[in-house]
Design a protein that fits this description.
Layout lengths: L5 H12 L16 E7 L2 E6 L5 E5 L6 E6 L6 E15 L5 E11 L5 E2 L4 E4 L2 E5 L3 E2 L11 E6 L2 E7 L1 H6 L8 E2 L1 E6 L5 E5 L4 E5 L6 E6 L3 E7 L5 E4 L3 E6 L5 E5 L10 E6 L5 E8 L2 E6 L5 E5 L2 E3 L2 E3 L3 E6 L6 E7 L4 E4 L5 E5 L8 E6 L10
Antiparallel strand pairs: 1-32, 2-3, 3-5, 4-5, 5-6, 6-7, 8-9, 9-11, 10-13, 11-12, 14-15, 15-16, 16-17, 18-19, 20-21, 21-22, 22-23, 24-25, 25-28, 26-27, 28-29, 30-31, 31-32
Amino acid sequence: MKRQTFTRIIAIVAASVLGCTLTSVDVSAQDGPEVFASGFNGPMGVMVASDGSIWVVDSGVGGEEEMMYPDFTTYELKAVKFGHTSRIIRIDEDGNQMEVGILPSIDAGGGEIVGGARLAAVDGTVMVSTGPWVALESDRVPLMSSIASVSDDGVKELVDTFEIEVESNPDGRFVESNPFGMTATPDGKLLVADAAANTLLRVDPSSGDVEVVALFDDLTSPIPNPHHDNKMETDAVPTAVVLDDGGNAYVSFLSGFPFVPGSAKVVKVDPKGKVSDYATGLTMLVDLQRGPDGNMYAVSFGRFTEQGPDPASGAVLRVSQGDGSTEVVTGLPFPTSIAFNEAGDAFVTTNGLGAPGSGQLLRYEGLAKAGSGE
């Protein structure tokens, strides 16, 4: 049985909204946020480093090499374009960009591109999660389904998350790993949301050890799922994770097709791995971060209607327990991630799905200013 991963969900959205022509929304002409940086190719992750610099990782544009890879929606093998064009970019306080690393990128056509995913820092070292790998006859391509370090010496693979799928495959379905959102723990490890395996992983960057902390149950769906023996269910698709001061993890779910508004949620995972609902009634969550004001903020990728996805329905939400979450930014074009500096300025990547070069990094001044509360 197959999974509905983040990658495949993006592919469904691309097929629905883009057709044969890639489009994007330019926020520079809109009132409100500052366009802090632009020119990205499907930006997926943003991070504010301890020195105040901003880091972005994008999906890339594929490449010239041809390889066989499962179609992101049908799972049938097809020829795709592969290359090392996914970029890790450091941006200074004036908005100047410097490329500091590259990663593999797969272009499956029709706007379906995967590459780098998210960024985090462990003991001052920048870490990046990378694109999905699936069970194929060919060996895994280096720096796919992995956690890697980024330094002046380049990008170095530290952990292969696909390996634990091969060894244990916790949910017994298709062997596939898509390490996505991640956060550092006080003991120098990483908690990683695997959007393909529907698991929360504890990763040790030093040793390469990977442990399954939690396996997330499927969500209820209004339609039969052919990849789940036609059961009325869909995948959770965990996308991001944050920690509270008590060691509890909070994980955002994107949820699988048909992306019913209100079907996504944030769950709480206690230190023993017990999972419980925390915030419900949400839609297509792709990121979750804590702000300096003490609140959690989530990014909603957008809303699906009967006519398909609305390309300017993305939002940033202030997350509250139960059904009390509120939208604080609306009208965003396919936003993918959020990060905060110490002043509470929010940095949001947009046009995660869009024409090459259309990706933007927006800054919302003081959105989560410390002491502002709710």
